[in-house]
Amino acid sequence: EGTTTLAYEDERLPDRPTAVTDAQGATRRFEWNALGQLAAETDCSERRTTYAHDARGHLASVTNALGETTRTPHDVMGRRQSTQLPDGSHWHHHHDAQGRPVEQEGPQGYRQQRFYDEYGRPEQRIDADGSHTTLAYDEAGRLGELTLGNGAVYRFAYDVMDRLVGETGPDGREQRYAYDAAGQLIERTEVNRAGPDGRPLVTRYEYDANGRLIARHLPETDAAPATTEHYHWRADGQLAGVENAHGEVMFVFDKAGRPSGEQQRHAGLEGDSGWSWQHQHTLTATGAPQASQFGDLPELSWLTYGSGHLHGLLASELGLEIALEPDALHRETRRRFHLSAPDANGSPQPLILERGYTALGQIAQLSLSSTGGAQAEQHYQYDALGRMTFRTQQGQGQASTIAYRYDPAGRLIASQHGDHAHRYPMDAAGNRLEAQPGNPPAPNSSNQLSQLDGSRYRHDGAGNLIEREAPDGERLTLGYDGANRLVRLTHTSAYGHTREAHYRYDALGRRIGKTVRHANGTTATHHYSWDGDRLVHEETEHQRTTVVYEPGSFVPMLCIDEAASGQEMERHLSAYVTDALGTPLRLVTPQGETLWHAQPHDWAAVTHEQGTTAQPIRFQGQWHDEESGLYYNRHRYYDPQQGRYISQDPIGLVGGDNLYQYAAAPNIEVDPLGLRGYMVLGVGLIVNRTWLGEQQPVKSQRVRL
Question: What is the superkingdom listed in this entry's lineage (predicted)?
Answer without folding.
Answer: Bacteria
